[in-house]
Design brief:
heterodimer; A: elongated; disordered C terminus; B: alpha/beta; two-stranded antiparallel ribbon; 15 helices
Chain lengths: 400, 469
């Protein structure tokens, strides 16, 4: 077998290794050159951009009012970019009464039409940038172009369209998204869809109800989850229908939504959901119970405190430990359940909330002797528990 | 003589191949980084913060003798911009003032909080909470002699669906959690773990536990590590993650789905490289279950960490890393070239065996035989020099490539002089620094073979005493 070195050596001084050295050195030179040139170019560009920004900012009111005609800045790419970014930032931060003036400037200058055109005709990154910019304009006429972006073959473009529609924060922008996801064929990240729908439907959550009714499976769960975030008392009995849905995710969302209401049916509905066969529905119901102001929830939470699921127990304890004026009585009731895990969870939460000191000081001079003894026992038991290790502790705590 | 020729050929091919692979990774990383950078332009972090769908996260901080930095680190973590966080500090039997400093700074009080040990750990002494900040919990446990045990205790106490393990001597940037979670939000059903970039803290100006000004460290040994970290994270991890073959998420900063970590039994106690070990076991479990998953790397969420400032500490660290490597590769050798382990079994693990684990052995054997061949006249002097020059130039090209990547994307070293220094040090990284690391890695192999898995501490300056410019 001949050595590779010998083979290469035959090529002589101008052989492969020498060429490789030269190529590597050339590569090094190119990379260093590129870094230096790029630094120089960027420094120059940002200096110029800063100068133009200061100049345009000093004329901002005239640009907005049209006293300085759009032609003066619109056809200079740098000026156009600066004005657009200032306009979009202002639109995002402006109260509704200032919005028309800013939008007028976008329309009159043709910037909005340019972005609509780009969103419809470009591809890839340029199209995605245009879609996001269109969303930030919050203009009604941007919605059809954004909706068209939802049908792109590229997932990234579809995501940009969803995010753009979400940023408009208009209920009209939710419709194209909803129309597509009800088919069950629309592929975009669930989180982007949920965020966009929450933004768009915030003022009209009722729009979602009809879509929830006509969908099934994961799409129904997704919509119910959004509805759960947005539901308000105005939704009324629609929530009761969702609370008895066959899908547990929908029931969980109804429970979450009920936490935002405080009507006559809220407590009975949550009472029923807190006994749901699915643990996460019970959990949502307990969380919702924690949010509402109603003394009647104590008995439901006490029942949940003895739940077979650790998370439900913890959350019920969390809610109970924050019912400040009733804590002594609740402690007596928890002891009466004779459930060690419930008592442990409740005391843990009293610790977390810092209420335990008040309870202990409240025992002084009171006749809550059984509660005091039980509390001290739990504290002693807990001290032992943290000394336990590994599986022993898991077994002692009853794990799940 | 024939053996010398074979050895020289092997070294030549090995060296060429490893550099060509790294060049390939560099190209993939450039493409992926630039794409990610474009995406960042449209990312609105305030929307993520305001979203009701942003899941809570538990930060787990294992601490063993971290008296210098622990209070500052915890303060920085509590100040992170993320809507729902819980910080669980696990004091792993420190014999310095770590616990006392925490107790004083946060007025810790004993808490009777329900603690269920899903993963077995060394005994807990107590659980504390802070009345100053209800998001902070401190677990005081007996020392188990390993970081993994402390992390496992933190996982047991965590109440969030996601956990983030952060080193006590590190600083996370304020938006780093939101940025790293963007990787999860992209596809929550599939993404089970995400790693962020770890950068070198030495030399930078730190004010109120936040990086005020990014500067390169003064000493050459630390600057070399800056280049190494840039290459490892911006090139290696970015590219491997692009193919869903990321073999490691740094123990200093990574987010994991808590349920999955519990499913694989948590961090392996007494694993020398617990971070590498966990990710390989995650791959194994998910591939065996035939689940669709992604273990991702996001290059912009940044964790700043102290690196060794003296040769002795650096030697210990590198030996430990190499021990960690073999300590993970060996128990998972059954994954090699098995169809069920897909790309991980066919590409990543063989790469790690050949180009990571065996690298110091092959290099030392190669250097020896080349010198022997030179002495015996098997190899001409001119060719030997040419080969050395080629190897040096090619490796330098890759190092400069990683600096370029940093320049094209995140540009943390904004000063001209800093970049110039980085570039200059790229020329010195491959001699003699590379040869030193080779020796330290060989020491790691030797220690592993002798069964010496002891954790040797690193000399630290401490965050709070970092140079104030």
């Amino acid at each position: 077998m001949g050595s590779v070195f010998r083979g290469i050596e035959k090529l002589g001084p101008a052989g492969l290794v020498l060429e490789a050295i030269l190529a590597s050195l050339l590569g090094i030179l190119l990379l260093v050159g590129f870094i230096v040139l790029r630094r120089w170019y960027r420094a120059r560009y940002f200096h110029k951009r800063n100068q133009r920004t200061v100049a345009l900012r000093s004329q901002w009111d005239d640009i907005l009012s049209g006293t300085i005609p759009a032609e003066d800045w619109r056809f200079n790419p740098l000026d156009c970019d600066i004005v657009e970014s200032i306009l979009l930032d202002s639109i995002e931060m402006s109260p509704s009464d200032k919005l028309p003036r800013l939008l007028d400037c976008l329309r009159v200058s043709g910037l909005l039409d340019m972005r609509i055109y780009e969103a419809r005709t470009s591809h890839g990154l340029k199209q995605q940038t245009a879609l996001l910019a269109l969303g930030r304009t919050r203009a009604m006429e941007a919605i059809p172009a954004l909706a068209a972006g939802l049908d792109s073959r590229l997932r990234e473009t579809r995501i940009a369209a969803v995010r753009g529609l979400g940023r408009t924060a208009r209920v009209e922008a939710a419709i194209p998204i909803l129309d597509r996801i009800v088919t069950g064929q629309f592929d975009a990240p669930e989180r982007s869809l949920k965020n966009a729908l929450v933004n768009c439907c915030r003022s009209h959550p009722d729009v979602l109800v009809s879509y929830v009714e006509q969908t099934h499976g994961p799409v129904r769960e997704l919509l119910a989850r959004v509805l759960g975030e947005l539901a308000s008392p105005e939704l009324g009995e629609e929530l009761l229908v969702l609370a008895s849905d066959v899908l547990p995710e929908v029931r969980a969302s109804a429970a979450r939504a009920l936490g935002n209401t405080n009507t006559a049916y809220t407590l009975p509905a949550l009472h029923s959901l807190a006994a749901d066969p699915e643990w996460f529905v019970r959990l949502r119901a307990v969380v919702a119970l924690g949010q509402i102001e109603n003394i009647g929830k104590i008995s439901i939470l006490l029942r949940s405190l003895c739940d077979g699921n650790r998370h439900v127990r913890q959350r019920a304890a969390w809610a109970l430990a924050r019912m400040e004026p009733h804590l002594n009585q609740i402690l007596e009731d928890v002891i009466a359940t004779k459930d060690d895990y419930a008592l442990q969870a409740f005391v843990s939460e009293l610790e977390r909330s810092g209420a335990i000191e008040k309870i202990v000081s409240g025992f002084a001079g009171s006749d809550h002797h059984s509660a005091e003894i039980a509390l001290m026992e739990v504290v002693a038991e807990a001290r032992k528990r943290v000394e336990l290790t590994g599986k022993t502790a898991a077994a002692a705590a009853g794990a799940h | 003589m024939h053996i010398l020729a074979i050895s020289n050929d092997t070294l030549f091919i090995y060296y060429l191949l490893s550099n060509v692979i790294y060049l390939g990774l560099l190209i993939v990383a450039i493409v992926k980084n630039v794409r990610h950078h474009h995406r960042l332009g449209s990312q609105r972090l305030e929307l993520v913060k305001a979203s009701p769908f942003t899941p809570p996260i538990t930060l787990i901080v294992p601490a063993h003798n971290e008296e210098r930095s622990i209070v500052g680190s915890v303060g920085a973590l509590l100040g992170l911009e993320y809507p729902r966080i819980e910080v669980v500090v696990v004091n792993d039997g420190s014999d310095d003032a770590t616990m006392e400093n925490l107790r004083q700074a946060y007025q810790l009080q004993t808490a009777r909080i329900l603690y269920i040990a899903d993963i077995a750990t060394a005994p807990l002494r107590a659980i504390y909470r802070s009345p100053l900040d209800p998001r902070l919990f401190v677990l005081d446990k007996e020392a188990a002699g390993c970081k993994a045990d402390a992390i496992n205790a933190g996982i047991n106490a965590a109440t969030s669906p996601y956990i983030c393990v952060v080193d006590a001597d590190s600083i996370l940037e304020k938006e780093s959690l939101i940025r790293i979670m963007a990787g999860v939000f992209a596809d929550p059903g599939r993404v089970v773990a995400v790693g962020g970039i770890v950068r070198v803290l030495n030399g930078s100006r730190v004010v109120n536990n936040q990086i005020e000004e990014v500067r390169l460290p003064k000493s050459p040994i630390e600057v070399m590590q800056v280049i190494e970290y840039l290459r490892a994270f911006l090139v290696g991890r970015e590219a491997w993650a692009g193919f869903n073959m990321l073999p490691i998420i740094s123990g200093a900063f990574g987010v994991f789905h808590r349920d999955l970590v519990l499913q694989v039994g948590g961090f392996r106690t007494h694993a020398v490289g617990e971070d590498l070990d966990l990710i390989i076991r995650m791959h194994r479990r998910l591939l065996e279950d035939r689940r669709s998953y992604h273990i991702d790397f996001i290059p912009d969420p940044t964790c700043w960490t102290e690196v060794p400032t003296d040769l002795k500490s650096l030697a210990r660290q590198r030996a430990r890393w190499h021990k960690g490597l073999i300590d993970t590769l060996w128990p998972n050798r059954d994954m090699l070239f098995r169809a069920r382990y897909g790309r991980v079994g066919w590409l990543v693990l063989p790469y790690m065996w050949i180009f990571e684990f065996f690298a110091p052995i092959i290099e030392v054997v190669g250097y020896t035989t080349i010198i022997l061949a030179l002495i015996s006249g098997e190899l001409s002097k001119s060719f030997f020099l040419q080969f050395l020059l080629f190897g040096y130039a090619f490796a330098t090209l890759i190092s400069i490539g990683s600096v370029l990547l940093e320049e094209m994307t995140f540009r943390r070293y904004s000063d001209w002089r800093e970049v110039a220094r980085l570039l200059i040090y790229c020329f010195f990284e491959h001699f003699p620094y590379r040869q030193l690391t080779m020796v330290w890695r060989l020491q790691g192999i030797w220690q592993y073979l002798r069964g010496d898995l002891q954790w040797r501490s690193m000399k630290r300056v401490g965050i709070s005493t970092n140079p104030l410019a």
